[in-house]
Structures are given as structure tokens and as C-alpha cells.
Design a protein that fits this description.
This protein is an alpha/beta fold and about 325 residues long. It is built from ten helices and 13 strands. The strands form three sheets. Strands 1-7-8-9-13-12 form a six-stranded antiparallel beta sheet. It is elongated. The relative contact order is 0.14.
Length: about 325
């Protein structure tokens, strides 16, 4: 079970490289329905493709990101908005997060292949056959590879699936770590609370989520499922609830709205610029949703709210294996 939540996740490519065409086809067939797969049986073409497939992987473009000023919470609320976050862009499905490469290949072995990759962020899995354990261990210790599996192990496919999931998660945690460091108060347990991470992971699995992005006002994740349904996973702390109750009191909100939030059995998702209640909102009670209480380092109150699909470029395609 993962103990941290990345700021974002999307269906990056998993690249398989093996000179054995039949084995490569078997790997592709085993994983194409759950991963965005690209396969090569030619090392030179694979290396060229990988090294030419570099892209800007930051969640927020540098020219769009406000300069840090004041407290970090205020800054992250300005940065992580629908306007600034680069979501659903066409190149996301061509970004490579994990490489799976065979050790024994004619022109160069798998370790030599990994040493020629320019992208230091990419996670690399070595499939060993003829390689001695010492070769793989040395490559692992030098950070040339991040995982290795014996190609002829009985449970190799199952172990490989687990490894790919783990390394994809690690890839996105590392990609979002700089923004977390800049924008999230170091004392905030939000993204590194194991109990909240468990809830979030189980939610994503139950909804079959393939893509998500953290947004603020209020704190939530925009979720997209394999079938392109959109949800918000809203997450409140006691402090957040208290802030909303204060606003409701100051703005003379309906008593039933205040009672619902005071019970901690419901949380709001107002469609306003700052995420708070505003006077004159019609049918205000329709903006609150049943909450699940998660006892972590602090109390969390979470709700899954269906969203109306946003207008996006319908010409952008995700590989069939990712969508079905």
C-alpha cells in the first residue's frame, strides 16, 4: 500500500525493449490493457526514441507560476488552479515514466542501454537472464536501474506488474516533490499521511481512475476514470471545516447548511472562485455531499463528487489499452 499521494498522475508510456520478438509480443499482450505500452526489438531505435522523447514534465509552467510570497498555503492556492495547471495536454501520453529492458541483447546489454539514457527521471527495470546477480546489484547500487527481475521466474509477469505500478508512483512523487517543497508547508501531513493515502488509493482503484490532479479552493483531486468520467475527491481537515463554518456564520447561510457541516457528516463543494459559500447561492444545500471520516495524523473528511465533464480537446487520444 502506497504511503504518499503525488500531486498528479496520468497515463505515461511504459517502454519495453527486448531483441526477442516473441517475448516482446507476449509482454505487450500481457500489459497493453492496463498500461500505455510502446515496444522495441531494436536497441538503436529504442534509444533514439527515448532520448528524443524528452518533454517538460513540470505540472505548472514556469512562466505561469507566481513567485513565492507570503505564506506557502496562500501561494499554493494561486498556483494550483484550473488556469495554471497543465492538465490533459496531448504530450502527456508520450511521456515515458518506466523502461523495462532485457539484459542480454546483441548490440549492447541492458545495463549499457540504461547508461545511454539521458532522462534521469525515468525509472528502469532490468530483466536478467544471463546477467549475474552481481551485475544487476552493481547497476542498482549505482542508480543505473531501479529494479531487476529474473526473466525465467514463474511469477515474473505478476512481479513485473507490481514493479511497474510502484515505479510509476515513485516517478510522479519525484516529479511533484519540488512543487510540494515550494508550495506545501513542511508541517502539513496531507500528502504523506498513510491513512489518507490508503483511502485515496482505494478510491482510485474502485473508480478505475487513470488520471488525477491536485487542485485547491478547496483541497481536492480532479479524477478521470478509464471511461472518461470525471469526479472530485474533496478532502477537508478540521481546520478547513472550521473556516467554512465561520464564513457560513458571517454570510448568514441557511441553518440547515451550518448544521450539516457541524455534524462532520457532510462537506461542501461550492462552485465559487474561492470555494466558499456566497450569499444568494440558490439551493445551497445541494452543494454539500456525504463525507467519509479518515482518522490519520489529523482528522480528514472526504467526499467523492461526480463532475460534469470539462471541455477538452476531443482530438487528443489515449491508447485503446488505457481506455478499455
Amino acid at each position: 500500500m502506497k504511503s504518499k499521494i503525488p500531486l498528479y498522475f496520468y497515463p505515461t508510456q511504459i517502454v519495453f525493449v527486448d531483441d526477442n520478438h516473441e517475448f516482446l509480443e507476449a509482454l505487450s499482450m500481457a500489459f497493453t490493457n492496463q498500461f500505455n505500452v510502446k515496444s522495441f526489438d531494436n536497441t538503436e531505435l529504442a534509444l533514439q526514441y527515448i532520448n528524443e522523447s524528452q518533454r517538460e514534465t513540470s505540472l505548472v509552467a514556469n512562466d505561469e507560476k507566481p513567485k513565492p510570497q507570503g505564506d506557502s498555503d496562500a501561494w499554493v492556492k494561486r498556483v494550483l488552479t484550473h488556469q495554471n495547471v497543465k492538465r490533459f495536454d496531448e504530450m502527456r501520453i508520450k511521456e515515458i515514466s518506466v523502461l523495462v529492458v532485457d539484459y542480454s541483447m546483441p548490440s549492447m546489454n541492458g545495463i549499457e542501454f540504461c547508461e545511454k539514457i539521458k532522462n534521469s527521471s525515468m525509472k528502469k527495470i532490468l530483466l536478467t537472464g544471463h546477467a549475474t546477480p552481481a551485475d544487476a546489484v552493481r547497476a542498482f547500487n549505482s542508480n543505473t536501474i531501479h529494479y531487476y527481475l529474473k526473466k525465467n521466474d514463474e511469477n515474473m509477469l505478476q512481479d513485473l506488474e507490481v514493479a511497474i505500478h510502484q515505479l510509476q508512483h515513485a516517478y510522479f512523487n519525484e516529479q511533484s516533490s519540488s512543487l510540494k517543497t515550494e508550495a506545501i508547508d513542511s508541517g502539513t501531513p496531507f500528502f504523506a499521511d498513510p491513512q489518507l493515502a490508503r483511502y485515496f488509493q482505494e478510491t482510485c482503484e474502485s473508480l478505475d481512475v487513470v488520471e488525477y490532479y491536485y487542485l485547491s479552493n478547496p483541497s481536492r483531486f480532479a479524477l478521470r476514470t478509464r471511461n472518461k468520467n470525471n469526479f472530485s475527491c474533496v478532502i477537508y481537515t478540521e481546520e478547513d471545516i472550521g473556516e467554512h463554518l465561520q464564513i457560513l456564520s458571517e454570510e448568514g447561510a441557511p441553518p440547515e447548511l451550518c448544521s450539516a457541516l457541524e455534524s462532520r457528516k457532510f462537506v461542501p463543494l461550492f462552485q465559487t472562485a474561492d470555494g466558499f459559500y456566497e450569499p444568494g447561492v440558490s439551493d445551497a444545500i445541494s452543494y454539500i455531499h456525504p463525507a467519509t471520516h479518515i482518522q490519520g495524523v489529523v482528522n480528514y473528511y472526504c467526499a467523492i463528487v461526480p463532475e460534469i465533464a470539462e471541455t477538452t480537446d476531443t482530438s487528443i487520444k489515449i491508447p485503446i489499452g488505457i481506455l478499455h
